[in-house]
Design a protein that fits this description.
This protein is of the alpha/beta class and about 220 residues long. It contains eight helices and eight strands. The protein has a single domain (about 5-120, about 170-220), classed as Rossmann fold (3-Layer(aba) Sandwich). Helix 2 (about 35-40) crosses helix 4 (about 65-75). This is Adenylate kinase.
């Protein structure tokens, strides 16, 4: 059976890392909303041109066009043996539209992976990043400290800063918005018995966390 997958998870939960692992192991395309939007606009597809008009006018792209771009992408031959959606659906209406287009394309969703990490842990993950002011090298207070405290490994600089997006209060607000947005989708797919919650905080060390989470995802996907 083809793996027609939706990947859910709050920012910092490790979606990007796990998406790459899934893509490599199961040889299915990773379909990111941002990527297919850019491609549709660049390739001047019917839906891409519609999206560009809204964007150029400074308006939000309506669900009808967003879903149309996703439908265009799922219609391609490389999705016949499975695919992974990341960043879509974002709303309940989009989820319902995807459910409707599935049988039309013979691409119905058969598994939804939700990488679950407690918000307080995500705040630590996301707000721990700091950057070298001289060369831009990125570090983390917990997971990637400079070899010598206060000294950049790359350029030897001693001045560091934290981006506004990475500050704890900003991170908390972003997580709150995303959690509210994801809740209806989680309920929607839970009701359809498609949702699988994966513990994204099986943390032993920075290098052992990724395989532990990936193994639990494999246990779900291998059953398909």
């Amino acid at each position: 059976m083809a793996i027609n997958l939706i990947l859910l998870g709050l920012p910092g939960a490790g979606k990007g890392t796990q998406a790459q692992v899934i893509k490599d192991k199961y040889n299915i395309p990773h379909i990111s909303t941002g990527d297919i939007f850019r491609a549709a606009i660049q390739n001047k597809t019917e839906m891409g041109l519609k999206a560009k008009k809204y964007i150029d006018d400074g308006q939000l792209v309506p669900d009808e066009v967003v879903c149309g771009i996703v439908k265009e992408r799922l219609s391609k031959d490389d999705t016949k043996n499975g695919f992974m959606l990341d960043g879509f659906p974002r709303t309940l209406d989009q989820a319902k539209a995807l459910e409707k287009m599935g049988p039309e394309l013979n691409r119905s969703i058969n598994v939804v992976i939700n990488i679950n990490v407690k918000p307080d842990i995500l705040v630590k993950r996301l707000s721990g990043r700091f950057i070298c002011k001289t060369c831009g090298a990125s570090y983390h207070k917990i997971y990637k400290r400079p070899k010598v405290a206060g000294t950049c490994d790359v350029c030897g600089g001693h001045e560091f800063f934290q981006r506004e997006d990475d500050k704890p209060e900003t991170v908390k607000k972003r997580l709150k918005v995303n959690k509210k947005m994801n809740a209806p989708l989680i309920d929607f797919y839970k009701q359809r018995h498609l949702l699988h919650d994966i513990d994204g905080h099986q943390f032993v060390s920075a290098d052992k966390n990724i395989p532990a989470v990936a193994k639990d995802i494999d246990n779900v996907l291998d059953k398909l």
